[in-house]
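Reopening this ticket.

The earlier resolution said the output was attached, but the attachment link was broken on my side. Pasting everything inline this time so it's all in one place.
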Amino acid sequence: MVSIREILFATDLSPEADQAFEHVRSLADRFGASVTMFHVAEVPDHRFAHWAFAHGHEVWDHAEKLARECLERRAATLTAKHSVVLERNSSASRGVLDMIRTLRPDLTVMATHGREGLAHALLGSVTERVVQRSFRPILCVREPDHGGVLPYRRILVPTDLSPVSRFAFPMAALFARTFGAEVVGIHVVSPRSLATLSGIPAVELPVVPTEASLWSFLQADFDGASLVAQVHEGSVWDRICHTARVEKADLIVMSTRGHDSLGDRIVGSNTERVVRHAPCPVLVA
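Inline output:
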C-alpha cells in the first residue's frame, strides 16, 4: 500500500511554481502530509578563480535572503506541518536530486515550463532531469488546458501492459480513491511498419488487446474506482497527450522505462515527451 506522508516542493519561485504550490497545498490537506519547501539558489562554481574575488558573495547572500523570505511567506499560508530549506548549488537539478535522496519524500512536486525547440535542446529542463534520475514519484505540474486545477476528477493511466508499467498503478489508484476520480486506462499500439504493410516479412507483431482485455488487466489494481479502457494506435506519447486533451484529464499517472533506444537517447523517452507536451499535470511514479 502506498501513502503520502511527506511532500517535497521544489520551487524556482516562478509563476509556474506558484501554480504547483496550489497542488501542494491541496495534497497536503487531503493526505495529512507534511511539506518541505525547498529552493536551490544557483550560484557559479567557486572552483573557478574569477568568482573568488570582488563582491560576488554579497550578491548571492542578498539573493538567498530574498528567496528565503519568499519561501517563508508562502509556507505561512499552509495549514499542514512544514519546513523551509534553501541551499546553494551550481546545478538546480543536482540540488533537488540530493534533497530527494536525503529526505526520501513520498512525493516531490515541481513545475514544468515546457520549453520547446532550440531552447529545450540547449537548456533542457530541471524537472525532466530530476524525473530521469530520481526513481521516486514526481508530480510535474502545469495548468490544464481546460482550465481549473483541483480536485482531480479524471485521471489518465497509460500502460504498455508490462510489469514495469504497473509500478504507477498503486499511486494512480490512491489518487483515484482519494479524490473520487474516474480512471481512463489507455494502451497505445505502435503503427505497423512500411515493411509489414507492403507484405515484406518482419518481426512478429505484438497482440493488440481489446478494450475488454485492457479493462481486465487494470481492474484488479483499480477495484472500487470508476474505470474505462481505451486502445489507440499511433505514436505513444502523442496519443497519450491527445487522449488527455480529448478526455479533459486533470492528471496523467505513468511509470518510466528509461531510455531504451538510440532515438530515445536523442529526443527523450515517451515519459519525458509526455511531461514536456501534456495538457495537464503528469505524475511519474
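Reporter confirms the inline version is readable. The chain is about 40% helix and 20% strand. The mean pLDDT is 85.
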